[in-house]
Design brief:
globular, alpha+beta, 28% strand, seven-stranded mixed beta sheet
Length: 169
Amino acid sequence: MSAPSPIAVDRRPGRDLAPAAAEGLAGLLADYHLQTQAEKGEAVAGVTELPDRYRSEITDPRSAFRDDLVLMASCGGTPAGCLVVTYPVRGGTEVKRLWTAPEFRGVGVASRLIGAALAYTEEHGVRTVRLSVWKWRTGAVALYERLGFTVTDPWDARDRLVCMERRAA
């Protein structure tokens, strides 16, 4: 049995994604949004049936995340996960779209992506990192809590959404 490939994390502004990276991100985002819709009890048959705001991320991730930082994890050259960090505004930023492809779960992809995102925010003097996560994603909530995020007052009123933040030390 061979050793698993190391996890590589690439980070760059969405506008600078190479075509292959944009394609890999689009695939990960499609899986993320389709799974999320199903978990919300609003399953759709395919990407074309997703709400416009989600479909646009998939069809043109370079434009959708133009000014955001996109982190892509890969294992052996295969897209394994993604995460988006919004451009810092007034000392704060938001982490969005954390997703690990099912075949790469349990090997540290999500932890590596969050770690790289937090390193970026520290490098840029961000004082507060916030995120929202669906209540039923208990593994993700536990990961965020281990990394110092705490539940905070909601800024998004959608039912079953947990808002969390982490303040710089």
